[in-house]
From TrEMBL, chain A:
Species per Swiss-Prot/TrEMBL record: Chondromyces apiculatus DSM 436
Protein name, UniProt field: Quinol:cytochrome C oxidoreductase
Keywords: Membrane, Transmembrane, Transmembrane helix
Transport found in the keyword field: no
UniProt superkingdom: Bacteria
Keyword Nucleotide-binding among UniProt keywords: no
Transmembrane segments: 24-45, 51-72, 92-110, 141-160, 181-202, 208-236, 257-278, 298-317, 324-345, 357-381
UniProtKB/TrEMBL annotation, chain B:
Keywords associated with the record: Membrane, Transmembrane, Transmembrane helix
Transmembrane segments: 52-74, 94-117
InterPro entries: ActD (IPR021776)
Protein name according to UniProt: DUF3341 domain-containing protein
Residues covered by region (Disordered): 179-205
Keyword Ribosomal protein: no
Domain of life the protein comes from: Bacteria
Length: 402, 205
């Protein structure tokens, strides 16, 4: 039930045409090559800075992939009917998680540099860190990372694998299987992303702690992955590949979810801030003090307005969420803001008293993004554009917003 | 919308088809009563989008902004208190209350404006006297044509509705006459049960 200007009798495309598939993979490989060269140059110039830049870039693409996994799990958990096509696109994003595991290896190599506050020899003399050593020690840190990636890769490949199997057989039991795994998968996902947030981001300043921090990282993952989903949907619709199973109504629904998670991010971010601000305990307020020094103050304010106030006002209207350009523009904007959000979490550890943006940051971003994009592009180019034998296809095509 | 001539349909598809056909024949003031939202019905009836969001927006801004202003005036200027050495005008502490007041003003005014737009409360409406109309909240799909509709013609429109598959056709406020023209007259016991049911069910709300 598309609106009049999108009505077409042509069936949806099942696969990406060879030319677009080649182009997509070409772009991904191009980004990867440029990124790796830039990162290598950055390593030669300033390995210390590259380590932190790389962590930011690695987290940007990993949170997007994790947001994709979250979306897939939640659609099965709620037995959602509208999201059959978007689910496949999120399966592509979650398919980048094996690449993310590989991309974690440089973090392991850089770990004594990035996490020197608690990994260095001085930490042994720090009374607070001595108490935390049972959790915050290098060995357990690496073991935990292996567990997180084990959980994520298992879940991502289970859901994407069963979904691809259904493309061939059309077996309804596969849908039931995925639904059965969804509840424990939700728990595993929630715990693993929370502790990954603690390990990879919060431990940058090992004295500081915030119990809501994992939820904050998750909120960013949801916002960024939904932005990416909006762009994939818009791309496929504008190319005329999908117009029945994915139309203006689905675009509207994705817009609503994106809008909702933008508010959620602000709600969690403010909840973290207000408690620390109100309690006014030095070891807690230090985190915000670092991010209020020099031009970090500007970055903080840009996040407040750019990650919440402006997109909130832009996406408030129904018309905006259904509009190609407005939703697409907002999605690109939110992906930039998500990078800035991670930059704001990571880089004050390196750049005290003010932000110093550098070309090395670009290398740290493009190298992991390019490598993961090669995998995502391969999945998009080789598989079907939507689950072609999903039992909920008729329901998904008939979605309508009142 | 007064819905002077009513017609009952068994399925949402029949109702949708009837609405489209009536529109094609020049009927313009149509309404529908269904137990659940029927896909495509709003478009078929050519209903405009609700004005409610725009009417509520000023109250959202006023509730949030006004509450922030009140706190800023009271705590920051009129009667400053030193709370843990913070400046009298501390924006973070005003945010939760401003947010809550924005939600409260929006929700309350949303309900009140909605009632005003629907001209509620209305304690009695002749539409509920029509036999079988209680089915509109159960398993029947009713179509209403306003008396001011330019195409509405007593005598011919009833026949048109019947030809479109209406199982009952009735004028509001003319229960006795409706009974003659509708099929309900063949099932007096069922109709007799439904009418009191409609009154007792609708009145308490």
């Amino acid at each position: 039930m598309a609106t009049s200007h999108e009505v077409s009798t042509k069936p949806d495309a099942i696969k990406l045409d060879a030319e677009s598939a080649k182009k997509l993979q070409g772009i991904a490989i191009g980004v990867a090559v440029v990124g790796v060269i830039l990162a290598a140059a950055g390593y030669v110039t300033d390995p210390h800075r590259l380590a932190f830049s790389y962590l930011t870039g690695f987290l940007w693409i990993t949170t997007i992939a994790l947001g994709g996994l979250f979306f897939v799990i939640i659609q099965h958990l709620t037995k959602a009917g509208w999201s059959v096509a978007p689910r496949r696109h999120m399966e592509w994003l979650s398919g980048a998680l094996p690449a993310c595991a590989l991309l974690f290896l440089p973090i392991v190599l850089f770990s004594h540099d990035i996490y020197h506050h608690w990994m260095s020899a001085e930490a042994a003399h720090d009374e607070i860190l001595q108490k935390k050593a049972g959790y915050l020690n290098p060995t357990f840190f690496y073991v935990r990372a292996a567990i997180y990636f084990g959980i994520w890769i298992f879940l991502a490949s289970y859901f994407a694998g069963r979904s691809r199997e259904q493309d061939k057989s059309g077996d309804r039991k596969l849908t039931e299987k995925m639904q059965n795994l969804a509840p424990p998968a939700t728990l595993l996902f929630g715990l693993s992303i929370t502790f990954a947030g603690f390990d990879w981001l919060m431990s940058l300043d090992p004295h500081w702690y915030s119990t809501i921090f994992g939820v904050y990282v998750f909120a960013g993952a949801a916002v960024s992955s939904l932005s990416m989903l909006a762009l994939i949907n818009i791309g496929l619709q504008r190319a005329g590949l999908l117009h029945k199973i994915s139309n203006v109504e689905h675009r509207h629904d994705i817009g609503k979810l994106l809008f909702g998670f933008i508010v959620f991010w602000a709600y969690i971010g403010f909840s973290q801030f207000i408690l620390i601000w109100y309690a006014n305990i030095p070891e807690e307020t230090l985190f915000y003090r670092h991010r209020w020094e020099g031009n970090w103050k500007v970055v903080s304010m840009v996040l407040l307005f750019g990650h919440f106030v402006i997109p909130f006002l832009v996406l408030l209207s129904r018309h905006a969420k259904r509009h190609y350009t407005v939703l697409g523009g907002a999605a690109v904007w939110m992906l930039v803001m998500h990078y800035l959000d991670l930059y704001w979490l990571v880089m004050p550890t390196l750049d005290h008293h003010g932000a110093h943006f550098s070309w090395i940051d670009l290398g740290g971003l493009l190298a992991p993004v390019g490598v993961a994009a090669v995998l995502i592009a391969r999945l998009a180019a080789s598989g079907h554009l939507y689950p072609i034998k999903d039992p909920r296809l008729p329901e998904a095509a008939a979605v309508q917003n009142i | 919308m007064k819905a002077d001539l009513l017609a009952e349909f068994e399925t949402p598809e029949a109702l949708l088809a009837a609405v489209e056909e009536l529109y094609r024949r020049g009927y313009r003031v149509l309404d529908a009563f269904t137990p659940y939202p029927v896909h495509g019905l709003e478009q078929a009836l050519r209903l405009p989008r609700s004005k409610l969001p725009w009417l509520v927006l000023p109250f959202a801004l006023g509730g949030g902004g006004g509450c922030y202003g009140l706190q800023a005036y009271l705590n920051g200027w009129d009667y400053p208190l030193d709370v843990g050495g913070r400046p009298p005008h501390s924006a973070p502490s005003f945010v939760p209350i401003s947010f809550e007041m924005m939600v409260l003003a929006t929700a309350l005014m949303g309900v009140l404006i909605f009632f005003a737009l629907c001209k509620l409360p209305e304690l009695h409406h002749p539409i509920f006297e029509v036999e079988g109309f209680a089915g509109a909240s159960q398993d029947r799909f009713w179509l209403g044509i306003d008396g001011r509709d330019p195409a509405l013609k007593r005598g011919t429109t009833e026949a048109l509705l019947a030809s479109l598959g209406a199982s009952r056709v009735a004028w509001t406020g003319e229960t006795a006459k409706a009974a003659e023209t509708s099929e309900a007259v063949k099932k007096p016991t069922e109709a007799a049960e439904e009418v009191p049911g409609a009154v007792t069910k609708e009145e308490p709300s």
